Structure formats: structure tokens, C-alpha cells
Amino acid sequence: MEFIKVIVPDKEGQNIDVLINGEKNGKVGEVLTIGEEGFVLVSVDLPGAEEKEVELVGTTPQHPKIVEIQA
Amino acid sequence: MKKKILYFSGIVIVLVLVLWLSFGFYEPRYNDPLTSASSLSKPPVSMQEHLQDDQTLLFVALSGGGTRAAAMSWKTLEELKKIPYTYKNREGEEITSTLADEIDYISGISGGSFAAAAWCLFRDNMDDFRKRFIEENIQLKLAKGLFIPPWQGLRLISRSYDRINIASELYDRAVFDHKTFGDLPSHPILWIHATNLALGNRFTYSQEYFDLIKSDLSTYPIGYGCAASSAFPILLSPITVKNYGTPAVLKEDKRYAMAKRNSRRDIEKDYYCGMREFFNDKTNKYIHLADGGLVDNQGLQSIIDQFGTNGIINKKLNNRDNPLKRLIIINVNAGVRPDDKSSKYSNAPHINSVIKYTMITSMDILSAKRWMEIKRLCSEVNKTALEIGYSTGSLSLLEMPYTIEISFRNIEDDAVRAECYDLPTSFYLNEDQINLINRAVPVLVEKDPDMIRLKQALYL
Fold it and tell me: Nearest CA to B160 among B282, B291, B288, B280?
């Protein structure tokens, strides 16, 4: 199990869905579980949001991968 | 005399010709293509939201093992019906149902697939299923099906029609009242698994899989799905489904692209890519399906997949708006260990025994490893909830996941366990054998440590 935290600059505290591999999966600003190590496509459910390919290996709940998405 | 011989020879030739023309091109029923008016307009069955307690996710896996597995599955489901389950809905009202009503996903293999499908279709009248399938001599019915009606057996002249088609039609008619996958309720979600022989991997009767072969699952008979799931090699021929071609262009498909990216370090993703490429190859027009037990005799892999990134368990763990409280996985394992006498003699075991050892041993080892993997994943989920639950809304309520195993190996009484281990793998059990299962299962359900823990949590 891997861990990720998605941040959208200037939109902290807003209720925004995270998209993992194109599907809604948790909210921005919260530590999210990712089923297995490897590459995932990360974005957020906002118009024009960028999509990043991120590699997750060796993350922990205390040290999740922090991903910043521009939207 | 010569004239007579010529006359009779002529009659025989005409008869053979008539039979060949009548039955030689007989086609079994295949799966229908997906049209704009069919399933694409509806959400795939596996994606539909369920209406029960949103904070509980309950999976049941029913293993293979012929009528023994169907009887064990049926009795387990009956026992789950007796366990009251109370929860508060979104409006705050207290609802009382049963643990059986809370099943969200039911996964069936071979004999277990019949009970899984029957549960989804006839849950309020499972007694009828017991009479139609568990107490019925299905083997005898299958044998009779070769001769009654007489044209049934003659259809075997066709190269497209085989013994499995006789079995499919029998299950469709006598067990499932011609119900199709489109007749299933939206909850629980049914997964019937078979094995794609060309690839040696799983094929699940779900719209998600049927979308990949551009086919409509809703018109496909459930009896045919169960026939594929229980088509044990050699005893029954594989069943064939048509591949109408993957609609999506692979390189543009995100799920495929990411699976490909990760396939070197994840064998399941590698299998998934292989399957997509196989379906996408327009020369692979047909998929031949055999017993699902060949690759997963307990139907557990589909549950393991749900722990994956885009699986329902992982999504529920991340759902802050409606946090998951209980994750329950019930594994009904009808595996047996017949007393083996081969080690008492110097002569090598008979070929039948060797075939049995070769197939059953690998199936059992794979299944046992998958169950251990589920336990490990549950333990990891629990550890994560303990570590960050206090600060992460979606994990704050989660109880330690429940992994409940209903298996003959857990029977404490040596004599009863030995009797159960000796039950045959066939599509017929006598009354005493069914009664033995009916006595053993309630004790297994009652004494499972995680079931005891779950009941304590439910009644607090």
C-alpha cells in the first residue's frame, strides 16, 4: 500500500475530488491510500486541471508522496 | 440381391445426409454483440451503487467443488440470514436487516457459481434452488440430456455444438428459469468466473469484461455462465463466447496504459494487458472458457483486485464523505482432502490419481495463498487506519477488517472433519452427504473467531 497527498495551490480546504487513473478517489488535502506501488495518473476534478504521472514506491502514512496539481 | 444392397445403401446415405444437413450446422446460442440500445446506455453492473449500509463492504467468495460446494454455499447463506444486522441509514433511521442482506459482492466459481447466481436471483426462495440443484442428480440429468429429447444428442454432430451446450441448456432451463444477467438485481453484484483457456487467466461474467469484447451481458443466460464456470476439463468441453472486438483503441485507454506501465512489477497487470491485447486482436474471434477453478478455485482474486488503486475497497478507504466502518470478507471453501493411500504401497499411483494430484494440488496451493494475501492486505489496511485514522476522516471509523473462513479444515471434531474431507467432487450428493454439510456449516459459522468478533461489534 502506498500513500499520496494531492494539493491544489490556492484552493486549500476546498472539497475537491482527486482523480487517480481518471477515476474519483478521495479528496484534495487528505492522505489517500493507493493500492499498490508503481505509476499512477493523478489529477483533480476541476476544469482544465493538469494530469501528472507519478511513481509511488516506499511511501508511508506519515510520509506520503505530495503531488501538486495546477488547476 | 445387388439391387437390394444398392437400395439400402441409398437409404442409409440419404438418412446420413438428412441428419448431417439438419444437425451438422447447428449453432449453440452465443453472446450477443453490444449495440447502442443495449448495455452501453446503462451503467455497467459492477459499477452500480448499492443501497444497503453504505459504511459496510461485505464480500462473499463461494468456491468450486461441484454439488458439495453448492450445498456448503447454500447453507452458509442460510446461516447468514439468521444473523441480525442493525444500522442507521443516511436519514438517521435505524434499519434492521440480516448479515446476508448486507452482501455487496458475491463471487462464485464452478459449484459455488450456482449458489451465487441463485442467491442474487431467488434469495427469498433459496429452498427452491436446494430442490432444483443441490438435491437433484445433475449428473444423471446431464447424461439423460444426451438422449432425451432424441435430437439433443444428434446436435453433437455439429462441430460448434458440444456436451457443454447440453449442460448450459439444462442449467438455463431447469435451474435458472431462462433468467439472463439482465434479470439480476443491482445489488449484490454477481461475479461468475471462468478460465480463458488460450491465456490461462480469469474471465469474469461482468459487463466490465463483456465491454472488452464488445458484447452485451444482459441478454446472456446465467445458466450458460455457470456452465462455463464449472466446465471441468475433459469431463466437459469448454464453452465458447464470441469476441466482437475491443471498442477502445488500446493506446488511448488510460487503464490499459497504466497497467502496461506497471506490468513489469505486477503480475495481475501483466495478465490484464495480455487479455486486452488478446481481445483487441481481430483474429481472435472466439474465446473458449473452462472451469474457473483452473486459475482461482475460490473466487478470491476478484476480491484482491478491489484492494488495488482503482478497486472498490481502496476507493471506500478514501471516501471521506461516507467513511468505511466495516470490511467483511467471507470465504466459503469447500476444499477436501481425500484420504490418500498411495504412500502405503511401492507401486506408482494410477494415472487418474496423478492427474488429480497435479490439478487439485496446484489449485489448492494457489487458493490458500490468495486467502493469505487477503489476510495480509486486511492487516495492512488495519495498520494504516491505526496509524493515521485519528487525522484522516476516511479512516477514523474503520474497525479491524473481518476475514471469515468457512472451511472443512476448521472442523474441530476429527471424525466429522474426516467425513467431510471424504465428500465427492461431483454433481450429485446423497441425502446423508447433504445432511452432513448441513450439520457442519452452522458450527463453522458460529465458531469462526472473526464471526464471533463481528457479532460482538454488531450487538454492542
Answer: B288
